[in-house]
DNA sequence: GTAGCGTAGTTGAGCGCTTGACTATTCCGC
DNA sequence: GCGGAATAGTCAAGCGCTCAACTACGCTAC
């Protein structure tokens, strides 16, 4: 959780020139609060969604991305990128969604290497059933807890980090 | 990722009385930024730590928690709680750390049911080697990107959410 | 003391993810 | 057009997590 080996460990290993830039007490608190809360929130939302609908959050995201596209279909690679997923992971996930009849693969006319993932009507129906559960969780566990100023700060923070982490 | 089924889907399913409290555009942006950034940051830190040291972040946390205790040992249940881990998950993880020689189990004198997880010298050494890598990642990908005001906002946000999610 | 219940921790099956190797197709330069 | 590099996607092995069932011990009351 923390990044300090142990309080008062004295001398420490030194990877970057000048030694590790240890966190001070304030940074530790901020880091832990962020880490714990993000972990708990994600766990909670995923568990509630999965329990209520049988759809894990990662699969839900795939369905959402497909549903937001005009033709309800997308190239596998682009879908992977949008879901912050590796190609391999997405390939496995789409296989399982295919077994449920929610998505099907279609060969891509313009590129013989490519495939399209297509959201089926059953998949869209499953998404429609799951969405209210999920949005209610986000409300309850996130937005209901925050002031408008905190929501603004959250967005600012997230977008700042995204510029560094995902400069796409 | 998002919580809306599809823009302009019109009527939607209604689980809570009054219909789902959908997110408005601002909330969507905030939610997505938070979700993506936390996911990318966690993935990145975990990957860098694992590549450089062979220790996944979840295992690192176990070692840290043990190291911060005076005797470098802790009851399994308490360790699970502190690591935001289920008993089962922790049990599996400690088994693997035991195989590496970094932790060992010890019967608990006061409670015949209980076990203590004890950090070995090898485990402490592994932690000492990994800590600088991890702290450098947190610096680079988090604190170096943020102003002091943003750090304060992050802590405030995290602690607010924790009061709701983990009122322990 | 023993029945019944709660707590501590483990185990095994099954699922999902990661990694790295693999096939197939397209793109590029000559 | 043809050879080599890049791109799209898949697959298998191995690891870690979840869930539910299980063992073992302690606690309380009768």
Order of helices and strands of chain A: HHEHHEEHH
Which two chains have the most extensive interface, and how many residues on each? A-B, 78 and 78 residues
In oligomeric terms, what are we looking at?
homodimer
Most strands sheet of chain A:
3 strands, antiparallel
CATH topology of the domain at 58-145 in chain A: Arc Repressor Mutant, subunit A
What is the correct CATH architecture of the domain at 58-145 in chain A? Answer: Orthogonal Bundle
| Euclidean distance between termini CA atoms of chain A | 29 Å
Beta content of chain A comes to 5-15%
Rg of chain A (C-alpha, Å): 21 Å
Mean pLDDT of chain A: 91
* Annotation field: number of helices of chain A: 6
Class from secondary-structure proportions of chain A: mainly alpha
Question: Count of DSSP E strands of chain A?
Answer: 3
**Coarse morphology of chain A:** globular
Helix content of chain A: 55-70%
According to CATH, the homologous superfamily of the domain at 58-145 in chain A is: Winged helix-like DNA-binding domain superfamily/Winged helix DNA-binding domain
Contiguous low-pLDDT stretches of chain A (5 residues minimum) are 6-14
- Strand line-up in the sheet with most strands of chain A: 1-3-2
Protein name (chains A, B): Transcriptional regulator, MarR family
Organism (chains A, B): Geodermatophilus aquaeductus
Pfam family, one (chains A, B): MarR_2
GO molecular function (chains A, B): DNA-binding transcription factor activity
